[in-house]
Design a protein that fits this description.
The structure is a homodimer. By secondary structure, chain A is of the alpha+beta class. Helices cover 39% and strands 17% of the residues of chain A. In chain A, 39% of the residues are buried. Chain B binds a DNA duplex through α3 and α4.
Chain lengths: 213, 213
DNA sequence: CCGGATCCGGGTTGATACTG
DNA sequence: CAGTATCAACCCGGATCCGG
């Protein structure tokens, strides 16, 4: 991106990460950890391959990502965030949180990837029973499943499955996002088509206190 | 901005505020409160007037800013953030904080506006003596002065002057930014050309505890 | 299949000039 | 003061191609 030529931290930050697609690439690397070019492409539906290649080079020059040569027998290139790149997490979180209300009026035809739910899960869910044993909830959409785990007061979310989940939910991204962000009760989400099996209290332990139903 | 067509809060947020210049316009309105088109132009050196007009229209359609007709005798248009627009403050703060380290290698010829210092002042300074009487520090650069006020544990910064400042500092933006963000001690900044008169303890009360010199 | 490079058409940006 | 109008330069998206 062209320089703004302003002595301002915000302007300097935008020169490095303000380009189209750039922060979405960082989102992918934050959500999945280090991954291959092709994995990035799958997580960024709509990006042109030349733009992905350009951005990766710019991000590497800026010290935000790092290129690693995976050892044999894989022998492929892996892309990962540097520590400086990981410091962008608060930025992604703040922007993502600001954007959640916009999802309500999203187009029906928008693409979706399961691991994008990791961010609202981390942002909105808290462990309100830190003295209880750990729990795990599996979340299934059309795409790849994720697991939300609560353990001693902290919540983490990651791609993959749990070995013995306390609950498993299946539904449209829209329903699950509304449920996580506190705009829908479990009962209402079920009524709208969400499938939830397992311990209902597992979810209640994590949900925002906004509604107490 | 073209749609990413992704069901993701971050992507939706970037569609609204990810365009070039957009977040800098929000920065201006956050720092100065409501102001005129010409004030915005002065605070955004380098923006083309057609782009400013375009962005203001887009931001208004998005519900982020509001256009007000100032009453006579001023009779001018004022631009102000809506509540939804003000919710972008955490985003600006996170990005600005991430960008502060980049200022160290900024170009000598970058433009500067005094009120841009409001953000690092709010972000980095804390009132470490909430039981003491309020203080005010005036900060002068080539441009418009700002005031940093500490009162009962909280710090605020605004454009303008104080009636009876406890201290007044004058120096280059670079020096003052380094001092505020904790990368330079007062002694070092003075040695590098910063002029500081008044109570040195006033500044010490606010500075990050990073260095204890 | 992986990780791009190249080319091209169209849209966006930036600089300047101009106006109600 | 608060913008339009115009136009060149640049950036983006889509398609295609290519060496390992």
């Amino acid at each position: 991106m062209r320089s703004y030529k302003q002595f301002c931290g915000l302007a300097k930050a935008l020169e490095m990460v303000g380009d189209r697609w750039t922060l979405l690439i960082v989102r992918e690397l934050l959500a999945r950890g280090r991954c291959r070019y092709t994995d990035l492409q799958k997580g960024l539906p709509g990006i042109a391959t030349n733009l992905l290649a350009d951005r990766l080079r710019e991000l590497e020059e800026a010290g935000i990502i790092r290129r690693e040569d995976a050892p044999p027998p894989v022998a492929t290139t892996l892309f990962a965030l540097t520590p400086r790149g990981e410091e962008l997490e608060p930025v992604i979180d703040a922007l993502g949180r600001w954007g959640v209300p916009l999802l309500a009026s999203a187009s029906k035809s928008d693409t979706f990837r399961g691991h994008w739910l990791i961010f609202p899960a981390k942002l909105y869910l808290k462990d309100h029973a830190s003295d209880r044993p750990p729990i795990a909830i599996e979340v299934h959409t059309d795409d790849e499943p994720i697991v939300i785990e609560a353990h001693a007061g902290s919540v983490r979310a990651r791609v993959g499955s749990a070995e013995k989940p306390d609950a498993v939910m299946t539904g449209s991204p829209r329903l699950i996002a509304a449920l996580i962000s506190g705009n829908l009760t479990l009962a209402a989400a079920r009524h709208a088509g969400l499938h939830y099996q397992g311990d209902a209290k597992a979810l209640k332990r994590l949900q925002p206190l906004a509604f107490a139903s």
